[in-house]
C-alpha cells in the first residue's frame, strides 16, 4: 500500500472509532451459507480469499465487497439455427446448469460471468451442430450434450465457473424436410409390409403343397376332409349348405350323354 492508502485507511478507522457504536452497523456484514463475499480495499483485492459464510468485518469508506452465489444456476439456451455437416438447416435449443467454484476469479477475471456463460453456450451449440450430420443430431443427443459440456467447462474454467450439465431440449426441422422424411418412412414401412406379405404367401403355398401331397397319398383323407368341412359348416347354423361335386363324376355324363341330348334338342326344334 502507498502512503495515500495508509492515510485513507487510518482516517477511516479514526472516523469509525469516533462514531461508535453507530459505525458498527456499517462494519459487520453477514453472508448466507450458499454465498461468499469478495472484499476490495481501495480497489485492491484483499488478501485472505473470499469471506463467508457468516459474519465478517469491513472498514467503512475504504472497503467494498461483492457477494457471489455458489448455488447451481440453470438457463435456457435460445433456439439456435445452424447448418449441419450434410447441409440441412436445423433449430436446436438446450439447457445449461452451472455453478461458481472460485468466487475470486468469477469477480476479478470476468465482468459478468452469467451473461458471458450464456453467450458462450449459444456459440458453442452452433459450432457443435456444424460438425454433426442430421442423423447424428436426431439419434445421438447425449453425445452432443457431452461434447458441449466439455467445451464449455474448459472455456469457463478461468472464470471460476463449473458447467455441471448440458441437455438438448428440442430439435426442430423445416416443414418440407419433415414431410419428406415422413414420406420416406411411410414408403419404407409399405415396402417392408409387402415383403412380409410375400414371405407369408410363400410359406402358405409350401404348406398347401405339403398338405396336397399328404392327401394325394391317401384317397380316404380327401373324403375325411370333405366330411370335416361339412361338419364345420353345420356348426355355424347356416340355412344353406353347398355340397361340392367333383367334376370327374360329371365327365361321364358330358362325354356319353352330351351328344345325344344335343341331337334330341335339334329334332325338337325342327
UniProtKB/TrEMBL annotation:
SMART domains cross-referenced by the UniProt entry: PHB (SM00244)
Chief location category: membrane
Subcellular location: Membrane
Keyword Transmembrane helix assigned: yes
Keyword flag Transmembrane: yes
Keywords: Membrane, Transmembrane, Transmembrane helix
Domain Band residue range list: 26-185
Any one of the GO CC terms: membrane
Membrane-spanning intervals of the chain: 6-28
Gene3D superfamilies tied to this protein: 6.10.250.2090, Band 7 domain
Listed Pfam families: Band_7 (PF01145)
Family: Belongs to the band 7/mec-2 family.
Name of the protein described by the UniProt record: Band 7 domain-containing protein
Organism: Cryptolaemus montrouzieri
Amino acid at each position: 500500500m502507498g502512503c495515500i492508502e495508509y492515510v485513507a485507511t487510518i482516517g477511516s478507522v479514526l472516523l469509525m472509532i469516533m462514531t461508535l457504536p453507530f459505525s458498527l452497523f456499517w462494519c459487520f456484514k453477514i453472508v448466507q451459507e450458499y454465498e461468499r463475499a469478495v472484499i476490495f480495499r481501495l480497489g485492491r483485492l484483499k488478501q485472505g480469499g473470499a469471506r463467508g459464510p457468516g459474519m465478517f468485518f469491513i472498514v467503512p469508506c475504504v472497503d467494498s465487497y461483492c457477494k457471489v452465489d455458489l448455488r447451481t444456476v440453470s438457463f435456457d439456451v435460445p433456439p439456435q439455427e445452424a447448418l449441419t455437416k450434410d447441409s440441412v438447416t436445423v433449430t436446436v435449443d438446450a439447457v445449461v446448469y452451472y455453478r461458481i467454484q472460485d468466487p475470486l476469479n468469477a469477480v476479478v477475471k470476468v465482468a459478468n460471468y452469467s451473461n458471458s456463460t450464456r453467450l458462450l453456450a449459444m456459440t458453442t451449440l452452433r459450432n457443435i451442430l456444424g460438425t454433426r450430420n442430421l442423423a447424428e443430431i436426431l439419434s445421438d443427443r447425449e453425445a452432443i450434450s457431452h461434447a458441449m459440456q466439455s467445451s464449455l467447462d474448459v472455456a469457463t474454467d478461468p472464470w471460476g465457473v463449473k458447467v455441471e450439465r448440458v441437455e438438448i431440449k428440442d430439435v426442430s426441422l423445416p416443414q418440407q424436410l419433415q414431410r419428406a422424411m415422413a414420406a420416406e418412412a411411410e414408403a419404407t414401412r409399405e415396402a417392408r409390409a409387402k415383403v412380409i406379405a410375400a414371405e407369408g404367401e410363400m410359406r402358405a403355398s409350401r404348406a398347401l403343397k405339403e398338405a396336397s401331397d399328404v392327401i394325394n397319398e391317401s384317397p380316404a383323407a380327401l373324403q375325411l376332409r370333405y366330411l370335416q368341412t361339412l361338419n364345420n359348416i353345420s356348426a355355424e347354423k347356416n340355412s344353406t349348405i353347398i355340397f361340392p361335386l367333383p367334376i370327374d363324376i360329371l365327365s361321364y355324363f358330358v362325354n356319353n350323354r352330351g351328344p345325344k341330348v344335343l341331337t334330341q334338342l335339334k329334332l325338337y326344334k325342327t
